[in-house]
Amino acid sequence: MTGPAFHHPDFSELVRVSARIGCLSFGGPVGQIALLHRELVDERRWVSEEEFLQALNLCHLLPGPEAQQLATWLGWKLHGWRGGLAAGLLFVVPGALVMLALTLLYAAAAHLTWFAALFLGIKAAVLGIVAQALVRIAGRALKTRLQRVLAVAAFVALVLFDAPFPLVVLAALAIGAAFGARRPDLLALAPAMPAEAKPVSHPWLASLRAVLVWGAIWAAPMVAVLLLLGRGHVLWQIGVFFSQLAVVTFGGAYAVLAYMAQEAVTTHHWLLAGEMADGLGLAETTPGPLVMVTQFVGTLAAMRAPAPFTPLVAGLLGAALTTWVTFAPCFLWIFAVAPWIGRLQRATALKGGLAGVTAAVVGVIANLSLWFALHLLFARVSVVQAGPLRWQVPDLATFDARAALIAAVAAALIFKVRWGIVPVLGICAALGLAMSAL
């Protein structure tokens, strides 16, 4: 018995549906992937269940936000390059515009007492949201003893040895690939699904063209910044940092946030630890990929070293450059790799590498949770070093009971009442205002 016939939309219909998805894509990658599945597989029958799952597995293998890359692949599947470009851009642009408006508001009002109280509640809610992500991803990723060992090892390497995030990712990728090729059972790898999609003719040519075109698009604004402003300007530093970040963002936004926070706060001094948590809170309230928090960082960094521009112009340039170098690589990965989807699905070493990274990401998010908790609950946190060990120690006298109480409320609403992210953020923001008034 056959199911309903598949429908191939015209380009205008793809654009309309992609715009709708971009405006409704709240809830992080899990909610966004579910939205794409409901809209394009269940309701409109534009692609089959098997093709959707194959594409999702492919996107998990690539750096960058998997939901946005999945939307790009679906557009590419239906209308080639222009379909992928339309679907991918419309998935990002609504959230980027909202995030820009909220960031400019934040920059203008952050010094106000009521605004600081509002964001005390939002930061406390973010701690609960990150803890929820940790529990969800751990439940999905840690199925075997080897995966649990990789998660603990990643956590210890980051917390006690201050290991660089890219090194942790690459080590997990190499270990997972080795076990995937020889002992896939230790990573609970599922057997490869048969490829349904028709093979693309001349895949090497299609991949080469994608790399050349999108590599040039990715580099174009950086060349302009280099020629006009030089290597010492903050826009060059922003572009280089977030271009590097785009290559190592395996495992989703939460995984890379700890690395981004460490570099943005302690290395570049673009913003404070509390402001980093504020940015994540803003990103949680907007549609689109959660990694849009990078735009918040880039905007504030540019506004605080604006010369030769005004702070507003510098902030707009920082936002545009950060968004460009964060998301342009996503199109490069998808357009270069999509022609090989069938072969990649049968590459057990690659699947093992992904499983290893996913397991390590649990340890990375646990490190992020600890980092947020320390900087939320204590006004002062110092670094202690003993030989190769290096860890953070809070000043117990600076404990913030208000933040702890709001974080407990957020945890109860998320884990017990099972409220969604947006209402939890609203309740906690109101609690922050109320406690400030009292």
In brief:
The protein has 438 residues and is an all-alpha fold. Helices cover 74% and strands 3% of the residues.
Give a written overview of the molecule.
This protein is mainly α and 438 residues long. It has one domain (94-190, 199-437). It contains 17 helices and 2 strands. It has helices at 11-24, 28-43, 49-60, 66-109, 113-141, 145-161, 165-182, 203-228, 234-248, 253-267, 273-284, 293-303, 311-337, 341-344, 348-377, 401-416, 421-437, and strands at residues 381-386, 389-394. A two-stranded antiparallel ribbon has the order 1-2. Strand 1 and strand 2 (389-394) form a beta hairpin. Helix 1 (11-24) packs across helix 4 and helix 3 packs across helix 4. The longest helix has 44 residues, at 66-109. The termini are far apart. The mean pLDDT is 88.
Descriptive keywords:
single chain, 438 residues, mainly alpha, two-stranded antiparallel ribbon, 17 helices, 2 strands
Helix content: over 70%
Helix/strand class: mainly alpha
- Number of separate structural domains: 1
Major sheet size, sense and barrel closure = 2 strands, antiparallel
Which range does the strand content fall in? under 5%
Q: Distance N terminus to C terminus?
A: 66 Å
User: What order do the strands of the largest sheet run in, or round the barrel if closed?
Assistant: 1-2
| Gross geometry | globular
Report the mean per-residue pLDDT as an integer.
88
Total beta strand runs: 2
* SSE ordering: HHHHHHHHHHHHHHHEEHH
Taking pLDDT < 50 over at least 5 consecutive residues as the criterion, the unreliable ranges are: none
Number of helices: 17
